[in-house]
Specification:
Number of strands: 12
Number of domains: 2
Number of helices: 15
Strand content: 5-15%
Distance between the termini: 42 Å
Largest sheet: 7 strands, parallel
Radius of gyration: 20 Å
Shape: globular
């Protein structure tokens, strides 16, 4: 396999599955966490390594190291591997996804933005999702008519904060996720609920037109539910561990215990709650963006720019949602090609930087 984003949490879980099942790792692609990368190189002996910055090449313990986005694309196009695991963060993950598909490779996809912004141009028959929510939806489908698909949310760092206090939330506050530790951007997206808007859009592109929704489930044990036309509902429950969807993506099936069995008595009560627009203002956009999924490029570009400004201290936490909503109303993006996706992304991104 080619593993993009090897030093992140999903990348590290993918390598744990590779080790468990003795899978060959041909290429490692990482950012700036060189110490972790060097440990991975020593263990998995990839043929090639690609990193973010050329200035870090001398720090990497490997004879074949390149740097930059062009090197990632070139490596994908000329690699013998038939599988690309894309665990990159942000809009930068789109080009590798397209390159892999155009090269006839399968993509085990954790990069949300690939489908959020480019879903209309991505051949989803080459995609295997490794987000736990989409894996859960896939796992539950059984050929019966479906009325609605539902994913769950933890609620993020501010699910229990007084609403009036959220105006003064800091960057450090956003990183205090109640259930687990993730990267900086995805933890911010969890706090704003943008990550669930993205995941609903992903589901729309993966599974087709239909009704999609999300609910808060505080324990993060229920990952997806399918509401069937006949009135019955099925839920996917599992301990929160990315290795399960990754193992299915990499191997096609799992015939041994990978996670501890669910103990219903120890689990106790499960509680579901709606996503409150007062706490998560971005949720106002849910119905419209599902009706107009091509506007995912606006949603993503505005979000990336707003997060950049929040991290820089230029705007407050609640200002991010306001900037995104202004951009969403201002730009009626209808890209007709992947090139136009890039053009719209740049225009929206630059606009939100100065809003």
């Amino acid at each position: 396999m080619i593993l993009l984003g090897s030093t992140g949490s999903i990348g590290q879980n993918a390598l744990a599955i590779a080790q468990r099942y003795d899978l060959n790792v041909e290429v490692l692609v990482a950012g700036t966490r060189i110490d972790i990368l060097n440990a991975q190189i020593a263990q998995f002996h990839p043929k090639q390594v690609v990193i973010a910055n050329a200035s870090d090449i001398h720090k990497v313990n490997h004879p074949h190291v390149r740097a930059g986005s062009a090197a990632i694309i070139d490596t994908i196009e000329h690699s013998g591997s038939s599988l690309v695991v894309n665990a990159m963060v942000g809009f930068a993950g789109l080009a590798p996804t397209m390159a892999a598909i155009n090269a006839g490779k399968k993509v085990a996809l954790a990069n949300k933005e690939s489908l959020v912004v480019g879903g209309a141009f991505v051949n989803t028959s080459r995609i295997v999702p490794i987000d736990s929510e989409h894996f859960g939806l896939w796992y539950l489908q059984n050929g019966r008519a479906i009325r609605r698909m539902i994913i769950t949310a933890s609620g993020g760092a501010f699910r229990d904060w007084p609403l009036e206090a959220m105006v003064n939330a800091t960057l450090a506050d956003t990183q205090k996720h109640p259930n687990w530790s993730m990267g900086q951007k995805i933890t911010i997206d969890s706090a704003t609920m943008m990550n669930k808007l993205f995941e609903l859009l992903e589901a729309r592109w993966l599974f087709g037109e239909g009704e999609y929704d999300a609910l808060i489930e505080r324990k993060s044990l229920v990952h997806a539910l399918v509401d069937f036309v006949d009135g019955s509902m099925t839920a996917h429950l599992a301990h929160a561990n990315m290795q399960l969807p990754i193992a299915y993506a990499l191997r096609g099936r799992v015939d041994e215990p990978l996670l501890p069995a669910m103990d219903l008595v120890a689990m106790g009560a499960l509680e579901f709650a709606p996503i409150d627009v007062a706490r998560y203002p971005l949720w106002e956009l849910k119905e419209d963006v599902l009706r107009h999924p091509h506007k995912g490029v606006v949603l993503n570009a505005a979000n990336e720019a707003a997060i950049k400004r929040f991290i820089a201290g230029e705007i407050g936490f609640m200002d991010m949602a306001n900037k995104v909503k202004i951009a969403y109303e201002r730009f009626d993006a209808r890209p007709r090609s992947i090139d136009e996706v890039y053009a719209w992304h740049e225009e929206v991104y630059q606009t939100v930087l100065t809003l």
